[in-house]
Write a structure and sequence with these properties.
The structure is a homodimer of 203-residue chains.
Chain A lengths: L17 H18 L6 H7 L4 H5 L5 H11 L12 H10 L4 H15 L4 H28 L9 H19 L5 H17 L7
Helix pairs in contact in A: 1-2, 1-4, 1-6, 4-7, 5-7, 5-9, 6-7, 6-8, 7-8
Chain A binds a DNA duplex (30 and 30 nucleotides) through helix 2 and helix 3.
DNA sequence: GACTTACGGTACCTCCGGGTCCCGTAAGAT
DNA sequence: ATCTTACGGGACCCGGAGGTACCGTAAGTC
């Protein structure tokens, strides 16, 4: 290996359009989120991306691979709020599920849940859109526990899992995204009471 | 109308087997819950029910109608616990989601969520397996509010919606049913703190 | 016993969608 | 200018599954 023999054969000819790449991924998310994994047609995705099926198969070997890529592409840097107020930090985390992209992600998750047997697909979706916001909430809780404002005995996993559960449930079954009022109620009436609990009511 | 003219033409010939009817519905739930709505094959359902496709189409006109009927058939009388203890009542409601039939129902719901465009299907599922347990929880909360043990200002809908959300989320995305430990934690660490809150912490 | 309808099973029709191929054209590299 | 590869788009192949038709048989009614 002098410089680069086997890898990267000199890229001659017309290069691939990166804009098209992104357009295809976006179209995939939209179509899959709206129609479901099985019902999503490659032709619809191609049409919505303003291209043909060939351009898709030039990049990904199968429908599954395409959807996995689209799910991974949804990853957005989830901020870990640190406002100095526990309530505001929680609100920041919960509000993450209100954004349009989050709603698209959840709708996609709805669908990916259907592909139960497809482990690859499910894991990719979970890692891409499931974990990050939960990790953020977990981090916030850990920080406030360290600060002594939250009981160290609180079941962090259970509490942190509450928010995505509600968001997912609303989108998947009730077909309505999380709204501001619900987010506030979730924080004030559920999360904060659960966290403020000292050492337990039965000593 | 003397006795019954138009309706019920004298049922001659071999009658339909009601046992088979139930077997088909059960098989439908199992196969659809395992494979998903789209991936569920009528032939698999028939085979699992120990019959042929013809026997199915003799009863329901389409795959969708069959699944709707199967969802409706899942309705089971959800008991409204009244043990004298708020905690026990809540536990009773939450435990409902641990039963095998509840897990099957939730798995089915996972799938029905995918059929977003099919309003008929979604509504049937919601009415059959979504509403009843939530109504039970709502009733329990209402009773304890009436008894004065729970703040009348508590957002009953939000709280009652928490449990199915968690159950659904776990089954659909995490692929694990609700277990006893989680149920207890849900009641002790989430529901009870949210309910015991008096009039609010900021007077 | 005659009749009617359900039964299990299978072969079949038909449509739909994933995936492939090929066209004429466009956009870069040498 | 030439070469190579990507592009949009259409034609096509093919497997799979919903739905139908028909068999011989079983289980009821009159």
């Amino acid at each position: 290996m002098t410089t680069e023999d086997s890898e990267t054969p000199p890229p001659t000819g017309r290069p691939r359009d990166p804009v098209l790449e992104q357009a295809i991924l976006n179209a995939t998310v939209e179509v899959v989120a709206r129609s479901g994994f099985a019902a999503a047609k490659l032709e619809d995705i191609a049409k919505r991306a303003g291209t043909g099926k060939a351009a898709i198969y030039r990049r990904w070997p199968s429908k599954t691979a395409l959807v996995v890529a689209a799910a991974e592409n949804l990853q957005s840097p989830v901020a870990i709020p640190d406002t100095g107020s526990l309530r505001e930090d929680l609100l920041g985390c919960v509000r993450h599920y209100i954004t349009p992209s989050a709603r698209a992600a959840l709708a996609l998750a709805t669908v990916l849940a259907e592909a139960s047997r497809n482990t690859e697909l499910r894991d990719a979706a979970q890692a891409a859109i499931g974990q990050p916001p939960v990790e953020a909430l977990r981090a916030v809780l850990a920080r406030w526990i360290a600060r002594g404002a939250v009981d160290p005995a609180t079941p962090v996993d259970l509490i942190a899992g509450l928010v995505p559960a509600v968001a997912f449930h609303r989108v998947a079954l009730l077909h309505q995204g999380l709204d501001e009022a619900t987010a506030v109620a979730l924080v004030d009436d559920v999360l904060l009471p659960a966290l403020h609990a000292p050492a337990g009511d039965t000593p």
